[in-house]
Design brief:
Chain lengths: 555, 589
């Protein structure tokens, strides 16, 4: 009850709390691998290359899916496209002009936490005016170390020329050399009544390479910073640093306790391991640590890549539900789906019955007592297929192929499959009619029929000849022979006819099944195109995901 | 304004589209007497609120659920107790952002460390009520604020009552948690406490007076008519005037020009953690003045109470609207289903009437059966039962099967667009989307193909029975054959249309059309087929009605019957009347 350290009793802390080694002594320990020597050129180049390839994969994914998105998914994909665009622009600006890129670090935080004071302390110059009235900074200020080639980058960031400050004048000699290539931004506040400030700050937090969150003893547990920013920034864990400012207002013990509490909150926000540095911009305590951190970031030369990689990981994770599983393989479509649809089409036309009818008509024609020149009746037209059966089979196909796909893809599959449903029954009838062909007049039957009639003629001639002459025997032989043929041929014709009708029926059924299969193939073509796009998207996403195991390792 | 029209509940113009519950709107003299009593009116509003539910995930549903819970809490914790006892001490809630120094201010006002202050945020986890020892009885067993302790975990949300002899009697200070705390429970509790305040002492600091969150809360206080005083804490002396002027400007801009503003400098605290007395003296003087006489106290308490009641009736009206909207959305979702299935049923009936079941594969089968002479044999058996041989296998099986398959496919195909339409329309609506994700009703089978086949099978069974009854004088031995043949031909005749038999001009004797004409003109078959078709259409209608239940039951599960809307609206109107009466009576006093 008696501790009221925010008004530190009788002992106003004017001297800065010296950060103790256990609590605030360094943003990360020096043993941390992140404190290793700066990486060599080869590694930096490789990392860039790897990132570029993954970005290209995401672009491919975006292209493949863009026709098949639901409204919500469109937003996700648009965000992914924005990322690839921004990454492209940022990577192009990296090293423009000098052969060595700039690193953009932003100071972000609520109103009144001392962002501008910290900015000035880090720049070691009074650049950005801190104010007493709230809200203060409405536009971002930038301080650039080594301004060569930085202007395009600052233009891209949208920092007005009058808010750009160049560090590293001749007077500084080599003092500021370790920070060469740094662009430090002082952002507007993000929690004030002035919503315009917030929009600007949000925009810049979205594009800079590193974010330093500035918090103070009054505001470190504010809902705004934690819920609206930090909890959504889990992806940027590795590029975020938290600075606990204004520790001069607290006694040292209180500052340590507060810092520990803040570390707990930051952990809860899903940013475990993010360094929390206690500083006082007013007294200068802890500023060196922040500067050391900035030097390290600049020396590492991959802040931009690191941020983009982190965001890319998060984006890929968000894109995953858009193509979560592999779709049906192309061969599977050809092997299973198309034949099944073909069978269903044939059945919808009654192919079996049609073949039976054709065979029956064949047997009708295969009788001997017709004139040899008799033309067979034309087979009746094939009625249009049963629309209900056709529709059901097409829908079933779309359902089966799209079973495991996301909802919007299923919808497109269904639409593509059923697009031409209306004309399909007549089209099937036409295709099957073509497959059935015209009723054949097999030469065998003409020959048999001719032979039969000739044999009848021969028999009659034999009888008449035998009656008209005395030489009966030869005529009798002719008559008996012909009569035998006349009697034997029908038996032969019936068995042959039955056998040949069966063969004809099978052939017709086969040809009609083939015709139905052709139509099925045509119907499946647009469906297959969608499945191909899906497969492409899935593959591209897999490529974009291929990360840590393939990423170049930093020693 | 609700209160103006509510003076004459009988003449109140009806909002369009409102279904009024006859019993609840009747204004018998007895009810009027009740409405005059503010407490009774508030109680009936509470009961109406308790009965209200908003289960459908409509656009405003979660907001409505939240608002209903908040209003219920406010009724229990503030409105009802305060309406019952206007002479109870005033509760001034000290609210503000995290780290604004609320606890230090409370401690300094009563000159004793009653509330824990500290550097760790949030500091005040459980609210602390400070009152004069003489007022202690009010907060011991009295319902005012008694509900607060029931929320949250045992030690975190518990209301602690501390007595401070230096405080003005008739005034209680409530040290609330931060309104923008990172701990959600603290935030909720803070808002609950603010809803239960007679007077707000809003604390902010020089560093954060322009934060967006506190201003949101201040605006709601302004809308509610709560008496507000603002304390600008932790001001560095050099910039004192500049910052104070800026804050006054903001206050006027945000519609609170009348709120008194007190400035407390950033200064060191004494051994007990208290600010120098001269710093907090103006605040203390203001509070003492407010609580000095019972008349003054009643005036402040009443003003905030009546303001809060106006806000509460508005909320209740909104909730009534939300409840109505729930009903309307449920109706719309159900209407989508009914319409889609009605259309499916109609499509199926039309298709059957057009002979769709006798086209395509079924017609091909018919032609094949005609060509093979099977139809002629069947027809002979039907027309001359005496010639039927008992051993003969029932002919026409394949034909009958083809028609049954076609009928089943027709039913399935008619349902497909209905289901697609429902899924489309439902997923366009948030409530419908949540219903789509709801577990399926397993009393109706999911598989429409099986259901359709069952309909056709049942119909065929009925037809078989009818055919048996239609031919009573056929010999028992051949009855099976005759019946089967009759069923085949009746099925064909029911599925086909007369136009099909009138010859689409296929040449040749014994052609399919000829045979069909003979079947259709047979009087026995025609009679049976007519009844069979009527029966089939009946079954189709029933089938689709049953199928639609799969969807309708999901909607019905989320419906609140009877709708809480009329009761809520009536209760709100009663509260409005009672408020006006209290206002008039108060003025007279």
């Amino acid at each position: 009850m008696n501790d009221h350290p925010d008004r530190s009793d009788g002992d106003p802390v004017t001297s800065a709390p010296q950060p103790g080694p256990a609590t605030s002594g360094g943003w990360i320990s020096r043993d941390d691998p992140r404190w290793g020597p700066p990486p060599d050129d080869e590694w930096v180049e490789e990392t860039d290359h790897h990132l570029t390839q993954r970005l290209a994969a995401v672009s491919r994914f975006v292209r493949a899916v863009q026709l098949y998105l639901s409204p919500e998914e469109t937003l996700t994909v648009a965000a992914a496209r924005q990322l690839t665009d921004r990454a492209g622009a940022r990577l192009a600006l990296d090293g423009a002009g000098t052969g060595r890129g700039h690193t953009v670090v932003a100071l972000a935080g609520a109103t009144g936490v001392g962002k501008s004071t910290l900015f000035n302390a880090l720049a070691r110059m009074a650049l950005s005016p801190p104010g007493h009235l709230r809200p203060t900074t409405g536009e971002a200020h930038a301080c650039v170390w080594d301004p060569r080639g930085a202007d395009p980058l600052l233009d891209w960031l949208g920092v007005a020329p009058r808010h750009r400050f160049m560090r590293e004048s001749l007077l500084d000699a080599e003092d500021e050399a370790p920070l060469r290539g740094l662009v430090l931004l002082d952002l507007p506040d993000m929690d004030s009544l002035a919503t315009g400030n917030r929009v600007e700050a949000d925009r810049l937090v979205g594009v800079v390479d590193r974010v330093i969150w500035v918090l103070d003893p009054q505001k470190y547990a504010d809902q705004t910073v934690h819920e609206q920013y930090q909890r959504r920034m889990g992806a940027l864990r590795d590029v975020t640093v938290v600075v606990f400012n204004q520790t001069d207002l607290l006694s040292r013990a209180d500052a340590d306790r507060c810092r520990a509490d803040l570390v707990r909150l930051v952990d809860d926000d899903g940013l475990p391991g993010v360094p929390v540095i206690a500083v006082s911009a007013r007294t200068g305590a802890g500023i060196d640590e922040v500067r050391a951190l900035l030097e390290k970031v600049v020396a590492d030369r991959h802040a931009a890549t690191a941020r983009l990689t982190a965001e890319l990981d998060a984006t890929v994770a968000r894109l995953t539900p858009l193509a979560p599983v592999a779709g049906p393989a192309d061969e599977q479509v050809s092997r299973d789906a198309v034949p099944e649809l073909g069978e269903a089409f044939a059945a919808a036309c009654g192919a079996d019955a049609l073949a039976a009818e054709a065979a029956w008509s064949y047997r009708q024609r295969a009788v001997l007592w017709r004139a040899p020149w008799h033309r067979a009746a034309v087979l009746p037209a094939i009625p249009p297929a049963d629309p209900a059966a056709v529709g059901t089979s097409v829908r079933r196909l779309a359902h089966r192929l799209g079973d495991r796909l996301p909802e919007s893809w299923q919808r497109h599959l269904r639409a593509a499959a059923t697009a031409e449903l209306d004309g399909l029954p007549s089209r099937l009838a036409g295709a099957l009619a073509a497959g059935r062909g015209s009723s054949p007049v097999p030469p065998l039957w003409t020959a048999l029929r001719t032979g039969w009639w000739l044999a009848i003629g021969g028999a009659v001639a034999g009888v008449l000849g035998g009656l008209s002459t005395q030489e009966v025997q030869p005529w009798l032989v002719v008559a008996v022979g012909c009569l035998a043929v006349v009697l034997a041929l029908p038996a032969l014709a019936v068995t042959t006819g039955a056998w040949r009708a069966l063969r004809y029926r099978r052939a017709v059924a086969r040809r009609m099944a083939h015709a139905a299969l052709q139509v099925a193939r045509d119907v499946v073509a647009p469906v297959r195109q969608i499945l191909r796009d899906y497969a492409q998207a899935h593959a591209a996403l897999g490529r974009a995901r291929a990360t840590s195991d393939e990423a170049p390792r930093h020693r | 304004m609700a209160s103006r029209t509510a003076f004459f509940p009988g003449n109140e113009p009806e909002p369009p589209g409102v279904v009024r519950d006859g019993t609840s709107t009747r204004t018998d003299p007895d009810r009027r007497g009740h409405a005059a009593d503010l407490s009774a009116a508030l109680r009936s509003l509470r009961d109406a609120l308790r009965a209200a539910r908003f289960p459908l995930e409509t656009d405003g549903a979660s907001a409505a659920r939240h608002a209903a819970a908040a209003l219920l809490a406010q009724l229990d914790e503030y409105l009802m107790p305060r309406a019952a006892r206007l002479d109870a001490p005033l509760v001034a809630v000290v609210g503000g952002s995290t780290g604004a120094g609320k606890s230090t201010l409370v401690n300094s006002l009563v000159r004793a460390p009653v509330s824990r202050a500290g550097v760790l945020r949030p500091t005040t986890r459980g609210p602390v009520l400070v009152c004069h020892p003489a007022d202690g009885t009010w907060f011991g067993g009295h319902p005012l604020l008694s509900g607060l302790g029931q929320h949250g975990s045992a030690d975190e949300g518990e209301l602690r009552v501390v007595s401070a002899p230096l405080l003005q009697p008739g005034l209680a200070l409530l040290d609330a948690p931060d309104i923008d705390s990172v701990v959600a429970r603290n935030r909720e509790l803070a808002h609950e406490l603010l809803a239960a305040a007679d007077l707000w002492l809003f604390v902010t600091t020089a560093a954060r007076y322009a934060d967006a969150v506190p201003w949101r809360v201040l605006r709601s206080a302004r809308d509610r008519g709560t008496v507000v005083a603002v304390v600008l804490d932790r001001v560095p002396p050099p910039v004192r005037d500049e910052v104070a002027a800026d804050l006054s400007r903001l206050l006027s801009e945000q519609g609170l020009p009348a709120a008194p503003l007190f400035v407390v400098d950033e200064s060191t605290v004494d051994g007990q953690g208290l600010l120098p007395e001269d710093q907090v003296a103006p605040v203390a003087a203001y509070l003492t003045e407010v609580a000095s006489s019972e008349l003054r106290r009643r005036a402040v308490g009443r003003r905030t109470l009546l303001g809060a009641i106006t806000a509460a009736t508005a909320t209740a009206d909104e909730l009534a609207f939300a409840a109505m909207q729930q009903g309307a959305v449920a109706d719309a979702l159900a209407a989508t289903v009914r319409e889609a299935y009605h259309r499916a049923s109609q499509t199926a009936a039309e298709q059957i009437a057009l002979g769709a079941a006798m086209r395509g594969a079924a017609y091909a089968r018919w032609r094949a059966s005609v060509a093979s002479g099977e139809v002629a044999r069947v027809l002979r058996v039907v027309q001359d039962p005496a010639k039927a041989r008992p051993s003969q296998a029932p002919p026409g099986r394949a034909l009958q099967g083809a028609i049954a398959t076609a009928l089943a496919a027709l039913l399935v195909e008619a349902e497909a667009p209905a289901e697609e339409a429902i899924v489309d329309r439902w997923s366009a609506d948030p409530a419908g989307r949540s219903l789509l994700g709801a577990p399926d009703d397993d009393t109706v089978p999911d598989d429409h193909a099986t259901a359709a086949r069952e309909v056709v099978r049942d119909w065929q069974a009925w037809l078989r029975n009818e055919a048996r009854l239609a031919a009573p004088n056929v010999r028992t031995r051949t009855r099976g054959t005759t019946t089967a043949a009759t069923v085949v031909l009746a099925t064909v005749a029911a599925a086909a249309t007369p136009e099909m038999g009138s010859g689409e001009g296929e040449p040749g004797r014994g052609s399919a059309a000829d045979a069909l004409r003979r079947v259709l003109t047979d009087p026995t078959i025609a009679r049976l087929a007519g009844r069979a078709r009527d029966d089939l259409l009946d079954r189709v209608r029933q089938h689709f009605a049953a199928r639609s239940l799969r969807w309708l039951r999901r909607v019905d599960a989320q419906r609140v019957e009877p709708s809480p809307a009329p009761r809520l609206r009536q209760a709100a109107a009663d509260v409005g009347v009672a408020r006006q009466l209290a206002l008039v009576l108060g003025k007279a006093a």
